[in-house]
Write a structure and sequence with these properties.
With about 150 residues, the protein is mainly α. Helix content is about 80%, strand content about 0%. Helix 4 runs antiparallel to helix 5. The radius of gyration is 31 Å and the shape is rod-shaped. The N and C termini lie far apart (about 100 Å).
């Protein structure tokens, strides 16, 4: 029993120290895949995000969001050509990527909402057509039975 009481504080200390430590290979707890190590990787990610946003017409659907992302991307391009500060340029590319992905998500949400509204309108049109057919059928049956049409 004494051995357990002596070892128990060390086990508890070990458990708490392991649980609070960040993931291996990261500085802030985020995954290492999200932090590119060089400017070229950051630029490629920004370009991929730009193409993803363009693929659903974010440049039209959420023009302001897309143009903001494009402005940051263009600033990064200018800094890359000047070759002044690679870290700052990398951060600009990462910011552009984040903005392009936000534009993509906003455009996707608008597209989903528009699709829902379009489907609702189609259902409403179908319902009106069905009601009109039923009304026409009712009217034609009423006139063939000799009753006055209303």
């Amino acid at each position: 029993m004494k051995k357990i009481l002596i070892v128990l504080p060390f086990v508890i200390l070990f458990l708490f120290s392991c649980a609070s430590s960040p993931d291996k290979g990261t500085t802030d707890g985020s995954s290492a895949l999200q932090e590119p190590t060089d400017m070229r990787t950051a630029k490629n990610r920004a370009v991929d995000a730009m193409n993803k946003a363009k693929s659903i017409k974010a440049d039209i659907a959420v023009k302001d969001d897309y143009n903001s992302a494009l402005a940051v991307f263009n600033e990064a391009e200018k800094e890359a050509q000047a070759a002044t500060n690679e870290l700052a340029t990398t951060n600009k590319y990462l910011e552009a990527e984040r903005l392009f992905l936000a534009a993509y998500e906003n455009a996707r949400a608008k597209r989903e909402e528009a699709t829902k509204q379009l489907n609702k309108a189609k259902e409403d049109i179908h319902q009106v057509e069905s009601d009109a057919e039923a009304f026409d059928k009712e009217q034609s049956e009423g006139t063939t039975q000799g009753g006055p049409a209303r």
